[in-house]
Amino acid sequence: MKKKAFSASLRYALFGLGYFLKYEYNARIQVLIAIATIGLGFFLRLSLLEWLFIISSVFSVLSSEIINTAIEGLTDLVAIRKMVSVKIIKDLAAAYVLIRASYSLVIAGVIFLPKIYLLILPP
Hints:
- The chain has 123 residues and is mainly α.
- Helix content is 88%, strand content 0%.
């Protein structure tokens, strides 16, 4: 890949990320949750493997929300009139984010709850 093409691709991707963070309310909420989760991870001194699961979950949810936003924007653009199929497409994209977020919540619970339990009720 040419150096110029890479820098242009990177610039476009950063613009998309900036747009996502500036205009998507859910993105800002998810970033705040991600920051809190990472802060809690430092506080609880996660192991390397635990960090891998937490970071993977955080990026999974954020990237899913970006895909959802793109799908919703594209369906709005190409839909001449509101059709049932457009609603179904948007609902499926939202369900994808919900599944990823639920997975992340399970991962966080498995990793954080035993550690928090030990802080509250030491052995």
